[in-house]
Amino acid sequence: MDDLTADHPTPAPDSHDLFLFLASTAHDMKNSISVLSGTLERLLVDASPKTESAYPQMAHMLYQTKRLNDNLMQLLALYKQVGKPEYPFDVQPLALGQLVEQVVAIERVLLKSRGIRLELDYDPALIWHFDEDLVVGVLSHAINNAIHYTCDTVRLAIRELDGWLELRVEDNGPGYPPALLKAGAIATREQGSGVNFLTNSAGLGLYFSSEVAKMHRHRGRSGSLRLENGGAYGGGCFILRLP
Q1: What is the model's pTM?
Q2: Number of alpha carbons in the 13 Å side-chain half-sphere of residue 157
Q3: Secondary structure letter of residue 49 according to DSSP
Q4: Bridge partners of 128?
Q5: Are the C-beta atoms of residues 190 and 226 closer than 8 Å to each other?
Q6: Which residues, given as ranges, of the chain have pLDDT below 50?
Q7: What is the structure's pLDDT at 237?
Q8: What integer pLDDT is reported at residue 166 of this predicted model?
Q9: Which residues are within 8 A (CB) of 91 and not within 5 positions of it... i.e. 6 or more apart?
Q10: 241 with 187: CB under 8 angstroms?
Q11: pLDDT value at residue 27
């Protein structure tokens, strides 16, 4: 009998269909994790370390669910950018007061549950043009990362500097390790794809942030991402610059 499979191999799945399947799966996972995160936030709002013995564990669970939610959001955004070129990159004017309010609302419960103070330094009336959803996602990721490494304080500082909008997330922890600082320096210097970030455990979030920065262009200039140690507290500094 002839081996029909040799002449008629099983067709490989279409790459576009595979992209759609993976994106749909990631979206479903993100929805489920968002429900879990919301439930944990409500439980933590009504509890305290004095009334709930599992409060520290619940706070840690909230941090982890937010981290997973960040990762899935970043994957979906990158999929839309790479797999669907028609992704609506929506640059609109927005007052910094509105931007900061959104970020604080997202992070408030997690910061409180971990006993971390958030310092704010910005001009609420300053208006800048950027994609609101993407920049909120970048700042939330940076604050979530700082929450994990800081001792007790995170600072969000935003200012206009030489025609750029500089958004800084700083902490008073031990700072970024040399390998991560080197990856950030290479990506900034080359203005490439940022793939150096992918070799680090924090790669996805930094890759996403770098791509968001470069998507913002104005008069021949594009945004950038920089990592350094120092700042107001001597810890890690995550710096997003938008033209």
Answers
A1: 0.76
A2: 13
A3: T
A4: 94
A5: no
A6: 1, 86, 190-200
A7: 96
A8: 98
A9: 129, 130, 131, 216
A10: no
A11: 66
